[in-house]
Amino acid sequence: MEHYDDIDPQPEPRSRWSLRATGATLILGAILGTAAFTVVPVPYVFEAPGPVYDTLGSVEDAEGESHPLITIEGVTTYPTDGTLSLLTVSLYGSRENRPTWLDIIEAWMRPDYAVVPLDSVYPTGTTTEEQIQSSKYSMESSKREAVAAALDSQGIAYESYLRVEDTRENFPAEGIFEVGDIFVSVNGKPARNSSVISQLIAEVGVGNVADCVVLRDGVETAVSVEVVESDPESKIPVVGVIVSSHYEFPFDVTIELENVGGPSAGMMFALGIVDMITPGFLNGGEDVAGTGTITANGEVGAIGGIVQKMYGARNDGAEWFLAPADNCEEVVGNIPAGLTVFRVATLDDALTVLNAIEADSDLSVLPTCD
After folding, report:
1. Which residues contact 255 (CB under 8 A, 6 or more apart)?
2. Which domain holds residue 224?
3. pTM over 0.70
């Protein structure tokens, strides 16, 4: 309740001027604050759920023509049903085109968005175009690894080899390996893909010497190289050699997906291929989505934007979601309503989940992130 009789109806002129000055100061401060708010560069970008693509379905190319996301030729394929969808994250902002502070504040308030430091996405000295090219390379590599993993899971043989592309400066491999060398073995064990060679190097251990055999100009050549730590933080055993995986498959698999980069679709590519080359419906005709990198030997790795991808899956109608085990910390407490998330560490884990869904088994016994 206000008591108007307590208010002086005739304030002193000086007091009236003081109030006006104070008001003017506040207004001026607000104007200056707003100006600074709009002028100060935004050191963030934000992520949001992106388009969803069914690996069993079709996509449109740049000309608007529809074609299968995965095409397999040279082997018997089978009808599919339901969806095995891969998820994407839309990134808003770059060094050249930054979001506004108002955009960032709005993104901070949304559970399906994530605000991330600009430098974590676009490292200093790296242009947006360079980042896009790197992302495209990762996508192409993940396609090859996915085909290899799918075939390996079904016991289908294929040829593979590792080619040396470069060596890291000031690492033991420098001056020992040459561009074009093809790995044959490490400590007497076949080195057929990048995940295997990483494991073999780790088995040698930091401070020890790895005895390698490479094919150089068509001649098997023995080389020895010391194993060191990649860096003080991660302490991963490495020799400092940069390799690329090359495969020769018994039939043709073409994966076409434009304007999408990175390696996170690898597991879903592999599952789509398995579904197409095996009888029956791998997913039981249900709508399943997932994400995760893949290696040729079927290891599923962590990805970025897991929360945005879960929301994207839910919004697209998926009931089931396959999440990399290494992302579980981010999954817990952030699962959108209506979505059931299963934890997978390998392609076999993912196949186990899908087989249970197809058989209408008790899904409560399957591993989750809880």
Report:
1. 69, 70, 143, 146, 147, 269
2. 159-248
3. yes
